[in-house]
């Protein structure tokens, strides 16, 4: 191996690491989405679900995972349009052939693959409670950052 190949290989590895960590597009959250949706749960990045899932979720806010999360028509439309315009841009979502069961991010094939090493007992911990509680382990989930190098699983 020649001397010039070592820095070139290092640069290639660094570029691969950066792109692997940056495949979830950063998106500024709309004010309405932050105020109305993130008031109850982490503001899931729109890129994590296809547009048809967001449309169904916004169309069924009166029975949103067991609660009534209804909003006025104008707010529902504004948030729905914003979600649809940014939906499904995560490369792992784009590879899926269909929306996840029950339009749940946690039931999508890519989510299951990414979390397959997490023992079932972890989801039951008091500080975790559910796979949908992203911020329990992803400390910067509220900022849309899910870097696997920044995970801290509560004990």
Automatic annotation (TrEMBL):
It comes from the Bacteria. Pfam families: DHC. Keywords: Signal. Residues 1-22 form the signal peptide. This is Cytochrome C. The lineage of its organism: Bacteria, Pseudomonadati, Pseudomonadota, Betaproteobacteria, Burkholderiales.
